[in-house]
Write a structure and sequence with these properties.
11% strand, Dehydroquinate synthase-like, alpha domain, two-stranded antiparallel sheet, binds 5,6-dihydroxy-NADP, single chain, globular, binds zinc ion
Length: 385
C-alpha cells in the first residue's frame, strides 16, 4: 500500500432539512455573498426561495446561467463581480458545473489576470475565497473535492484544474432536492460516479485492500439505487445513497494507498470539448469499449475480481467471467436509458483523430492502468461509433 494524505476537509451536512444550517455555515466569512447557480432548476424546486429566505440578512449578488460543461465566460463574469462587490464567500447552488465554476470564480477574485490562466496552470491558484455549496445532483463529487473542470469552446478545450484551496468549507447535501432531477441527469450522474470509481479501482495491484472493497460497495450502491431513483424519483433512500456515493467516490478516499492515471475521463473531456455532450453519457459510451480493449492476460484477473465482487458472477473461467462483467456494465447503462453510441449523441467520425490527438496532448496516458497511445484511443473511439 502506498503512502497517502487523506484530508477530509469539507464540513458535510447531509440529509433532510439540512439547508437550515446555511446561515450558520456562511456566517463566519462575512455579509457579502456571491450566489452562483445554473439555468433555473433551483427556482422550480423551491431551493432558490429557501436560500433567499434563510439569508435575508445578507447582501446577495447573483450569478445565474451556469451551463453544463461550464464555460470560462461565466467564470470571468463571476470573478469580476467578486472584485466589484467585495465578496466574502461564494455560495454554489446546483450540480458539478455550478460548483466547479464557483471554485474558479473564488480563485479569480484574488487573481489579476484572466481566470483562464487558473485553469491552464493550477500554480496560479494562490488564494481562494471560502466556498460553500448546496448540492442538487449526485455525480461529480465536487462538493468535497479539490477539482474544477472548465470549458473554453473558442479553443475546443475542456480542462481540469485542481487545488487544495478549492475544497469547499461546507456542503449541504439534501437528497430531497434531487427529486426534480430528470431521468437523463440521474442516469448520467450515476455513470459519472461509477466512472470515478472505475478510474481508481482499475489500477495496478497495490495491496490497498480497503480502498478496493470501498470501491466495490459504492459500485453496488449505484447498481442498486439508480434504477430505483429512475422508477421513483422521490424515493429518499435511493437519492440519499446515490448522493453519498457521489461524494465518497471522488474525495480521495478510493485512492488511499493506490495511484495511477485516469483513462475514460481524459477521452470524454475531448468529446465534450468538441461537442458539448453530457459528461456522464460520454463516459458510459466509452467505458465498456475501453474495458474490452484493454482486457488481456495482465488485466483479466482484475476484471474477473470486479465481476465476482460487484456483479456476483460465479463463472469459473476467468476470461468468461471478465467478459460477463463488461457486458453487465454495458447492459446496466443501457437499461438506465443512456444512449450507448457516439452517433446517438450527435458525434460522427470526422473529429475522432483530432480528439485522440488532444487526449494525448493534455494528459499523461502512459501513466494509465494500461498505457494508451493515440492509435489505441482512436480504436476505442471508433468502437464507440
Ligand atoms: O442548470 P440547471 O437549471 O440547474 O439544470 C441542471 C443542468 O441542466 C440540471 N439539474 C441539476 N440539479 C437539478 C437539475 N435539474 C433538476 N433538478 C435538480 N435537482 O442538471 C443539468 C446538469 O447539471 P451539471 O451541473 O452540468 O451536472 P453535473 O453535476 O453532472 O456536472 C457535470 C460537470 O462536472 C464536470 C463535468 O466534466 C461537467 O463539466 N466534472 C467535475 C468533476 C469535479 N469537479 O471533480 C469531476 C467529474 O469527472 C467531471 O469532469
Ligand atoms: Zn466525471
Amino acid at each position: 500500500m502506498n503512502n497517502f494524505r487523506f484530508h477530509a476537509y469539507t464540513d458535510i451536512r447531509f440529509g433532510k432539512g439540512q439547508v437550515e444550517c446555511l446561515p450558520e455555515l456562511v456566517c463566519p466569512y462575512g455579509k457579502n455573498i456571491l450566489m452562483v447557480y445554473g439555468g433555473g432548476s433551483i427556482k422550480k424546486n423551491g431551493l432558490y426561495d429557501k436560500v433567499k429566505e434563510l439569508l435575508s440578512d445578507y447582501n446577495i449578488i447573483e450569478l445565474s446561467g451556469i451551463e453544463p460543461n461550464p464555460k470560462i465566460e461565466k467564470v470571468r463574469e463571476g470573478a469580476t463581480l467578486c472584485k466589484e462587490h467585495s465578496i466574502d464567500v461564494v455560495l454554489a447552488v446546483g450540480g458539478g458545473s455550478t460548483i466547479d465554476s464557483a471554485k474558479v470564480i473564488a480563485a479569480g477574485a484574488y487573481y489579476d489576470g484572466d481566470p483562464w490562466d487558473l485553469v491552464t496552470d493550477s500554480n496560479n491558484i494562490k488564494k481562494v475565497l471560502p466556498i460553500v455549496t448546496i448540492l442538487t445532483l449526485a455525480a461529480t463529487g465536487s462538493e468535497m473535492n479539490k477539482n474544477a473542470v472548465i470549458s473554453n469552446m473558442a479553443t475546443n478545450e475542456k480542462l481540469g484544474t485542481s487545488s487544495h484551496h478549492f475544497k469547499p468549507q461546507a456542503s449541504i447535501c439534501d437528497p430531497e432536492y434531487m427529486y426534480t432531477l430528470p431521468a437523463k441527469q440521474t442516469a448520467a450522474g450515476t455513470a459519472d460516479i461509477m466512472s470515478h470509481i472505475f478510474e481508481q479501482y482499475f489500477q495496478k495491484d497495490s495491496g490497498a485492500y480497503i480502498s478496493e472493497r470501498f470501491a466495490e460497495s459504492l459500485l453496488k450502491a449505484c447498481i442498486k439505487y439508480c434504477p430505483m431513483a429512475l422508477k421513483e424519483p422521490d424515493n429518499y433512500e435511493a437519492r440519499a445513497n446515490l448522493m453519498w456515493a457521489s461524494t465518497q467516490a471522488l474525495n480521495s478516499l478510493l485512492t488511499c494507498g493506490k495511484g495511477g492515471g485516469w483513462t475514460c475521463h481524459p477521452i470524454e473531456h475531448e468529446l465534450s470539448a468538441y461537442y458539448d455532450i453530457t459528461h456522464g453519457e460520454g463516459l458510459a459510451i466509452i467505458t465498456p469499449r475501453w474495458m474490452r480493449y484493454i482486457l488481456s492476460d495482465e488485466t483479466v484477473d482484475k476484471f474477473c475480481e470486479y465481476g465476482r465482487n460487484v456483479w456476483d458472477i460465479t463463472e469459473e473461467d476467468k476470461y468468461a467471467c471478465a467478459n460477463m462483467a463488461i457486458d453487465a456494465t454495458e447492459q446496466f447503462f443501457k437499461d438506465c436509458g443512456i444512449p450507448m453510441t457516439l452517433g446517438e449523441v450527435g458525434i460522427d467520425d470526422s473529429k475522432l483523430e483530432l480528439m485522440a490527438e488532444d487526449t494525448i496532448k493534455y494528459n499523461n496516458m502512459s501513466g494509465a492502468y494500461v498505457a494508451l497511445n493515440k492509435e489505441d484511443i482512436l480504436a476505442i473511439l471508433k468502437a464507440c461509433l
